[in-house]
Amino acid sequence: MANVCEICNKGVLSGMNVSHSHLKTKRKWKPNIQRVRAVVNGEVKHINVCTRCLRSGKVQRSI
Q1: Would you say residue 1 has pLDDT above 70?
Q2: How many CB atoms sit inside 10 A of residue 33's CB?
Q3: CA pair distance 12, 14, nearest whole angstrom
Q4: pTM for the complete prediction?
Q5: Where are the beta strands (DSSP E) in the chain?
Q6: DSSP one-letter code for 41
């Protein structure tokens, strides 16, 4: 599954793990993406949406 929200385009962020001794290794932060049935332009479609968009009501879920 793509790690990108189709509503807000939130995607993977990259950065560093920093240990106590200040050694650095690369890491990723992935968004919490859910595949949901939603109403898009009057049609029911499956879309990939982050949980922030689901909670804030930017997506009208279909039953």
Answers
A1: no
A2: 19
A3: 7
A4: 0.81
A5: 13-18, 24-29, 33-40, 43-50
A6: T
